[in-house]
Amino acid sequence: MIRAVMVINTQGKPRLAKFYEFQFLRSACGEATGAYTQRLWRFSCSLYLLSSRAENVSNFVDAESIFGPDTRLVYKHFATLYFVFVFDSSENELAMLDLIQVFVETLDKCFKNVCELDVVLNYSKMHTVMDEIIFGGQVLETSSTEVMKAVEEISKLETASNAISLVPKSVSAWRSR
Amino acid sequence: MAGSSLMENLFQRTLEDLIKGLRLQLIGESAFLSKAIDEIRREVKSTDSDTKANALHKLTYLSSLHFYDMSFAAFHVVELLSSTRFSHKKIAYHAASHSFTDDTPVLVLITNQLRKDLTSTNELEVSLALECLSRIATVDLARDLTPEIFTLLASSKVFVKKKAISVLLRVFDKYPDAVRVCFKRLVENLESSESQVVSVAVGVFCELALREPRSYLPLAPEFYKILVDSRNNWILIKVLKIFAKLAPLEPRLANRVVEPVCEHIRRTGAKSLLFECIRTVVTSLSDYESAVKLVVVKIREMLVDDDPNLKYLALQALSVVAPKHLWAVLENKEVVIKSLSDVDPNIKLESLRLVMAMVSESNVAEICRVLVNYALKSDPEFCNEILGSILSTCGSNVYEIIIDFDWYVSLLGEMSRIPHCQKGEEIEKQLIDIGMRVKDIRPELVRVSRDLLIDPALLGNPFLHRILSAAAWLSGIYVEFSINPFELMEALLQPRTTLLPPFIRAVYVQSAFKVVIFCLNAYLLQRGNAASSSYIDKLVPDVPGLVSERDDPESSDLASCDSPVHCKQDEGFNPRVLNQSFEGLFAEHGGEETATRGQVSASSSLKDGYTHESVINLLNRVELALAPLTRSYDVEILERARNILCFIELIKRKMPDCLVQKEESLGREEAPASQIIRLMHDAFSNDLGPVSVSAQERVPVPDGLVLAKNLEDLETIFGDVQLPSLNSVSLGSPQYEDRAGFSLPILQSKDEPGPSNESTSLLADHRKQHGLYYLPSAKNEDEYPPANDLKLHADTNDGDEDLVKLTEQLLVSKKKPNYVKPRPVVVKLDGDQVPIAANPVRKEDLLSGTVRDVLLGSDTNHTSSQSKVSTKSSTQRKGKDKLNVDSVTESKENLGDIEKHDQGNPRSRKSKHHTHGKGRRHKSPGKKGDEREENGQKVKQKNSHSHSKHKARQRAEVPLNFVAQTPGIPDFLL
C-alpha cells in the first residue's frame, strides 16, 4: 500500500502531507506530534539534500531508516516541488512514478498550468484530488479524466451547498434586526 | 444571536486569509501561528456552523502542514459531521480522518452519523464517509458498519463501489468476522466488467495475500483468469504480485503461471509491467530455466538503458536472482562493475551488492583488489560502504571464503590505511578474531600489526584507533612472533600514543607489559640455555666452578647487600603497600640500581638480541614512558601502568642476583625474580581461543547448587568483606575479573599473580567461606579449552565443534589445487553460526483464519449481523456448509492421491480426474472455471455478463492453453 504522499518544495517546506499508514501518523498525532514532526523534518532535510543531487539520477531514495522497514520512496521533481510517494512492497516502483505523473497531470488540468502557489492556496482541493486517486493507501483511479470528473462534481456540490445556505442565513440575519 | 454569528462570520479569517497571512510573514511565523491557533480555539466553540467549519478547516490545515495538535477539537469535529451541508460535512470528514485515532474518545459518537451517510442517496456523501472510514475505522466501527458496507459492495455506481471495496481492507483488518459477510461479494467483484472495480478488488487481495498468502490459494483460478485476460497494466501488476506470493506455495500453480508471465514479458511495452514480470520470475519462478533466460535478456536491456531508474531496478532484480543463477550476474559483469563509478548513489550501492554476490573463494582476492581501488577514489560515504561490504562478505560464516589468510590480513592492514576508512571497529574485531581462530596466521598478523603500530601518522586518525588497539593487543599477545620486540616496544610507547583514548591506551600499556615479560623471559632462557649446556658438558653440576667462571666478585657482594632490602620488600609486596611506597623505594634504590646495572651488563654480554644491556635499556625505557601514567585519571591506565612499573622495579632489584644464582645453582631454588618472570610468562603464553556464545550455558550446574533467583542474600554475605573482593565478584569490571577464579577469557585480562596477591588470598578465603556461589574451578578449565588444542577439543566438547570434521569439510570443499598454501585451520564454534531464528510458529492471525474459513466454507457460526443483512446469501451458504466438510488438508491428500495414480497409469488420468472432480464438486464452494460453467445457477448469474465477453476473447487468444490444460490441473487450482 501507499503509506504517504508528500509534496515538498525545494526549500524543504511541506506543501501537502497525507499519511495512510495508520499507526504511523496516529501514534504521532496522539502524543503531541513530536515523533511525527521529527520524522518529517528529518525527511525534509534529506529531501533538501536531494536537490543538490545531479539531475539525471534515479528517483529512488533509501527511506527505510526514516519510514521503517519495507518502505520505498520515489520522488519526482517538478519545477520547485518534489512529489514524494512512500510505499511498501505491494506497489510497483515504476507504477508509482506513473501515479505521480497522473497526480500532477490532474492538478495541471485542475488549475491550468499548476504552480507551487496553486498547491499552497488550494489546500482542500489538493486533498480532494488526492482522495480520488488514492483511497486509504490503495490506488483508486488512474485516469486523470475520471478523477477530474469526480472532483468537479464535488466542487459543484460544495459551492451549491454554500450558496443555498448563505442566502437564507443573511436574509434571516437582516430580518432579525 | 444571529447578529453576533454574522459578525463572527464576516470577520473570521478563512483558510485562504490564513495562508496568505502566513506568506506575508509580517510578525514572524511562530507568532502568527500561535495567534491563529488562539483564534481557532475561540471560533471552534461557536454555535454558528459556518464559523465552526471555517475554524476546523484552518485547524486541519495547520495540523497537517505545521504539525499542530488538533485533538482538542475532536468533539467539534463530531458536531460538524452532523451538519446537513455538504461543504461542512466535507471539512468535518477531512478533519476526522486526519486527526482521529483509535484512542479518540469521541469516536464512539460518530457511528450513527457514519451509518446515515453510508446509506445516503448522495453518492458524494457516501464517498466521504467511506474515505473517512478507510482511515479511522476501529474495531467497533468496523463491526457496526459492516452491514452498510456489504450493501454498498453491490452498488450500481462504480464511484461508490470501488471505494466500498477498498474500505474492506481496513474493515477486515479491524474486524476479521466481516470476512464472513463480505468476502463473497469481494470475490465476485474480481469478475466485474468495470476494470476500475477489478483493479481495486485485486489491490485488496494483493494486500491481503501479502500478509498470509496461503489462505488465498483457492482463489488462484480467478487470479489466473485475470492474468490471462486483462490488458490493464495496473491490474496485471497487482495480480503478478499475488502470484509471486502464491507460486512458491504450490508448484503446480507456478507451472501454470510461468507461461502467461513470459507472454506478458514478450508482449508488453510498459516498463512497470515488464519489471513486475521480471520481479515475479526472479523471486518466485526462478526454477524455470527458460523464463529466467528470457528475463535475463530483458534485464540486460534495462541495464544499458539511459533511464537510471530502469538501470537501478535491473540491478536490483539481478541481485535477487544472484543466489540461484549466478551466471546471470556473471554475464553482466562488465556493466555491473562499471556501475560502481556511476553518478547515481543508488546504482553504485546496488552494483556493489552484486559484486559482492559474485565473490567466491577463487576470485575474492581479485574482486577485493578492484573494490579497494574503487574505495580509494570514491567519496567517503561510498568508500565505507565498499569497505563494510568487503568486511562482511569476507568475514561471513567464519571467513568461509578466505583461503589465503596472509593475503586477507594484509588486506585488512591496507584497508586501515585508506584515508576515509571508518570501519575501525569491524576491522578490529576481525583482526582479533582471526588471531584467535587461525593459529597459522599469527606471524603475519604480528607483522601487519607492527606496520600499523609503528606508523605515527595513523595515531592522528580517530577512526583508526580501534584498529590500533587490535594491533597493539595482537602484537602483545603474540609477541613471540615478533621479529624485533624492542622496536615493537618503541612503537607501543611512542609519545603520540597520548592521542589515543584511555581504554585503548590501556591496551597499549598492557601489551607493553607482555612484551617486557617476553623479553625478560627470552633473555633468561638464553642465559639458562647457555648455563645448562655448560652443565651438560660437565655432567656434574659444579656450582662453585660455574660461579667463578661467570661471575665477578662484585655481584655476589651486591647480592648479599641487596638481600635484606628485598626481603623486606617481598614481605610487603602487595599492590597497596607497593603503590604507596613505590616512589620512595624508587628514589632510595635508584642510584644503587644504576650501579648494579653497569656491572652486571658487563658480565653478561650475549651475542643474541637479548643482551643484558638491551633488556635493561628496555626496562628503563618502559619506566620512563610509563612513569607519568601513574598519575593518570583513568583507572585502567593507572592500574596497568602501576602494575608494570612495580614489576619492573621488582625485577630490577633482583636482576643481578637472579642472574648470578641461576647460573651458580640450578639444583637450588630458582631466584625469585626469574621465577616470577617465568610464572608471568607462562600466564601470558596461555593461548586464548574464541569463546562460543553458548559456552556459559554449557557449564553444568553442579550437584547441590541452589541458584537462588534472588541474590539478595549475597549482600549479607558480602557485608563483612572488603570492597576489592566485592569488585572481583562483579563480572563487569575487567581489571578484577582475572583475579576471581572464574573469569571469562576477556582479551586484555590476564593473570597477574604478582600484584594481585592480596585479593587472591582474600578471594580464596571467601571461596572457602561461600563456596556455594562459586563455579567449580576444574570444570571451568574444561569449559574453555585453549582454542587450538585439537585433542582437548575433541575430548571435551560433545560433538559441537568437531574440528576434525571441519578440516575434512574444508579439504573436501576446496577444489582449487593451485593454492600452494593449504587453508589454515579456522576454529569454529557452534555459537558462531548466527542462530537462525527458528521460524516462529506464527499464530495464525484472525483474519487469515477467517478468510480460510470462508473460502473453504467450514464456518458454521454466523454472526448476527450477517444473518440480518444477507439472509439470502447466508442461507445459501449455510446449505452449502452442511455439505462442505472437507478441509484443505483432506483435499490436498486427495490431490496427492491422484498424482500417485497418475504416475501409475497415465492413460486413466483424465477419467480419474473427472470422477474426482465430480466427487468434489458439491463439496467445495464454487471456485473453479469449468465447475462454474456447469454448476449452480447463482454462479452462472454471477458470471453471465462478464464471462461471455471474456470467453470470446479468451478462446481467441489462448484457446489451447486454457482449455486443453485444464483437465491436467486439479480443479482445486485451476
TrEMBL record, chain A:
One of its GO terms (biological process) is intracellular protein transport. Transmembrane segments: none annotated. Residues 1-157 form the AP complex mu/sigma subunit domain. Gene3D superfamilies: 3.30.450.60. PROSITE patterns: CLAT_ADAPTOR_S (PS00989). The keyword Membrane applies. Belongs to the adaptor complexes small subunit family. This is AP complex subunit sigma.
From TrEMBL, chain B:
Residues 907-926, 939-953 have a biased composition (Basic residues). It is found in: Endomembrane system; Golgi apparatus. Residues 863-874 have a biased composition (Low complexity). It holds the Pfam family Adaptin_N. The keyword tRNA-binding does not apply. Residues 857-974 are annotated as: Disordered. Keywords: Golgi apparatus, Membrane, Protein transport, Repeat, Transport. InterPro entries: AP3_complex_dsu, ARM-like, ARM-type_fold, Clathrin/coatomer_adapt-like_N. GO terms for biological process: Golgi to vacuole transport; protein targeting to vacuole. Residues 34-516 form the Clathrin/coatomer adaptor adaptin-like N-terminal domain. The keyword Kinase does not apply. Residues 881-904, 927-937 have a biased composition (Basic and acidic residues). GO terms for cellular component: AP-3 adaptor complex; endosome membrane; Golgi apparatus. Its main location: membrane. Belongs to the adaptor complexes large subunit family. Part of the AP-3 complex, an adaptor-related complex which seems to be clathrin-associated. The complex is associated with the Golgi region as well as more peripheral structures. It facilitates the budding of vesicles from the Golgi membrane and may be directly involved in trafficking to the vacuole. It also function in maintaining the identity of lytic vacuoles and in regulating the transition between storage and lytic vacuoles. Adaptor protein complex 3 (AP-3) is a heterotetramer. This is AP-3 complex subunit delta. It comes from Prunus avium.
